[in-house]
C-alpha cells in the first residue's frame, strides 16, 4: 500500500513538473509575437481587432479604435473576398503614411480568425523606386540622343527633349531657357513640356544677382552650378514664385546649366510634385543628359549656320552664273577684244574677237597666264599698280609683244585700264579699253 502511494506521489510530481515545463514552453512560444519587432494582429471576420503585439500597438496606437478603417488594414475587403473564395493565405503590400508594409495574412478556419503578419519594406521599396527612376532617366538619356540624330530644328529638338523628360522620368513640368546678354540679364523660355498652365509666363526671371535672380534657374545660369530647391514651401529664396508654383502643385525643382566652351548659355529646369525627390545618382544622370542637350543645341546651330551658308553660296553661284552668262553674251556680241583675267592674271574668259585678233583658240588661253603670251615686266607693273592702288591709268601707244608668235610685228595700243570695285571699295577687276579696232581687256581679281 505504502509503495503504491509512493509511486502515485512520484507520478504526481512528475506530472506537475511536465505540466510546468509545458506551461513554460507555451509561455516561450507565446512570447514570440510579443517580442517580434514587426506588427502582428488577429481579427475576427467582422474586422474586430482581437489581438495586437507590442510592436503593433507602438506603430498603430489607434488600430483598435479605427479597426478596418485604419490604413494598416486598408486591404481588408480584398482579404475577406479572398477567404470567401477559399484562399487561406494572402500576400499584399499596403502603405501607411510614408511607410510600406508587406503583409502575410493567414485564415485560421478552425477559429474563424485572420492573423496578419507585417514586415516594414520601406527601405526596400525606396531602393526599388530609386532604381526605377534611374532606369527611366537612362531611357531619357538614350531617347534624347536618338532625337538629336533625327532633329533638324533647334526648337523642335528642345521641345522634344522636354517631352522625353516628362514621359520617361515622370516629372510634373520641364522648361528650357536661354540667357540673354541684355542689361537686365533676362532669361528667355524657348521650350517646355508637362503641366505648365501659364506658370512660365509669370516667372519674370533674371540671372542677375538680384532678388528675382536667386531662384534655382537664375543661380544655375549665373554660377554655372546645379540649382536645387528641395522644398518650395520653405525655401526663402523661392518666395517670389511660391504662390504660382503651389497653385500648380509643384513642390521642388532642380536646374541644370547648359554650357558650351565653359560658358553657360541656358538651363534645363525640372519640377516635381514631391519634396526632395532627386537622388544623387539621378542628378548625375540628369546632368549628363543636360550636357548632351547643350551639345545638341550647339550642333544644331552649327548645322543651321552651315545650311544657311550653303544656301547663300548656292544663290551666289546662281547669280554669278547669270552674270557670267550676261557677260559672255556681251563679250560675244561686241567688236572689241575682251579678256577676263584673275588676280594672278590668268585667263578666265575670252571672247571670239580676242581669239581671232591673237590667233588663239579659247582652249589655248583659258587657265594660262596673260604674261606667258604677252611678256612685259613693264606692263605687269602697270597691271599690279591698278590692282593694288585702285586708280585708273591711261596709256598711249604701249607695245604688245606676242611671245609664241614672233613672226607677228610688235603692235602699239592706246590703253585705258580701269579698276572695278565692290561695295567695300576693294578692287576685284580691271577693264582695259582700246580705241576702234582695239583690244579691250578686263582683269578680275578674286581673293586668294
From TrEMBL:
Family matches, as Pfam families: GAF_2 (PF13185), PAS_4 (PF08448)
Xref: PROSITE patterns: PAS
Mind telling me which CDD domains this protein's record contains? Answer: PAS (cd00130)
- What InterPro entries has UniProt attached to this entry? GAF, GAF-like_dom_sf, PAS, PAS-like_dom_sf, PAS_4
Where does the PAS domain lie? 323-393
- SUPFAM superfamilies in UniProt: GAF domain-like, PYP-like sensor domain (PAS domain)
Designated name of the protein: PAS domain-containing protein
Amino acid at each position: 500500500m505504502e509503495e503504491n502511494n509512493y509511486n502515485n506521489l512520484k507520478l504526481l510530481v512528475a506530472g506537475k513538473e511536465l505540466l510546468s515545463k509545458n506551461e513554460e514552453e507555451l509561455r516561450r512560444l507565446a512570447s514570440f509575437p510579443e517580442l517580434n519587432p514587426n506588427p502582428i494582429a488577429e481579427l475576427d471576420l467582422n474586422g474586430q481587432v482581437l489581438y495586437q503585439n507590442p510592436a503593433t500597438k507602438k506603430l498603430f496606437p489607434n488600430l483598435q479604435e479605427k479597426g478596418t478603417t485604419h490604413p494598416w488594414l486598408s486591404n481588408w475587403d480584398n482579404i475577406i473576398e479572398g477567404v470567401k473564395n477559399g484562399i487561406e493565405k494572402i500576400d499584399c503590400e499596403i502603405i501607411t503614411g510614408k511607410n510600406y508594409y508587406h503583409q502575410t495574412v493567414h485564415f485560421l478556419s478552425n477559429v474563424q480568425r485572420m492573423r496578419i503578419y507585417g514586415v516594414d519594406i520601406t527601405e526596400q521599396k525606396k531602393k526599388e523606386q530609386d532604381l526605377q527612376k534611374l532606369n527611366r532617366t537612362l531611357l531619357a538619356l538614350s531617347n534624347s540622343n536618338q532625337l538629336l540624330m533625327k532633329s533638324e530644328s533647334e526648337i523642335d529638338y528642345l521641345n522634344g527633349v522636354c517631352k522625353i523628360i516628362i514621359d520617361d522620368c515622370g516629372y510634373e513640368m520641364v522648361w528650357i531657357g536661354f540667357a540673354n546678354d541684355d542689361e537686365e540679364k533676362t532669361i528667355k523660355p524657348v521650350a517646355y513640356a508637362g503641366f505648365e498652365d501659364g506658370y512660365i509666363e509669370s516667372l519674370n526671371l533674371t540671372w542677375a544677382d538680384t532678388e528675382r535672380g536667386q531662384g534655382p534657374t537664375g543661380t544655375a545660369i549665373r554660377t554655372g552650378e546645379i540649382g536645387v530647391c528641395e522644398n518650395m514651401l520653405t525655401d526663402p529664396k523661392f518666395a517670389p514664385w511660391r504662390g504660382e508654383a503651389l497653385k500648380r502643385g509643384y513642390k521642388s525643382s532642380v536646374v541644370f546649366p547648359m554650357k558650351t566652351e565653359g560658358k553657360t548659355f541656358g538651363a534645363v529646369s525640372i519640377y516635381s510634385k514631391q519634396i526632395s525627390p532627386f537622388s544623387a545618382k539621378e542628378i548625375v544622370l540628369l546632368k549628363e543628359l543636360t550636357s548632351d542637350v547643350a551639345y545638341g543645341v550647339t550642333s544644331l546651330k552649327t548645322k543651321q549656320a552651315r545650311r544657311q551658308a550653303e544656301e547663300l553660296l548656292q544663290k551666289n553661284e546662281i547669280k554669278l552664273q547669270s552674270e557670267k552668262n550676261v557677260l559672255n553674251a556681251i563679250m560675244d556680241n561686241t567688236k572689241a577684244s575682251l579678256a577676263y583675267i584673275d588676280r594672278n592674271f590668268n585667263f578666265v574668259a575670252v571672247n571670239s574677237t580676242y581669239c581671232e585678233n591673237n590667233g588663239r583658240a579659247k582652249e589655248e588661253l583659258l587657265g594660262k597666264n596673260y604674261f606667258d603670251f604677252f611678256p612685259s615686266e613693264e606692263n605687269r607693273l602697270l597691271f599690279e599698280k591698278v590692282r593694288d592702288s585702285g586708280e585708273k591709268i591711261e596709256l598711249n601707244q604701249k607695245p604688245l609683244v606676242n611671245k609664241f608668235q614672233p613672226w607677228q610685228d610688235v603692235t602699239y595700243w592706246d590703253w585705258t585700264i580701269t579698276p572695278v570695285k565692290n561695295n567695300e571699295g576693294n578692287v576685284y577687276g580691271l577693264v582695259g579699253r582700246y580705241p576702234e579696232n582695239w583690244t579691250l581687256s578686263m582683269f578680275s581679281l578674286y581673293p586668294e
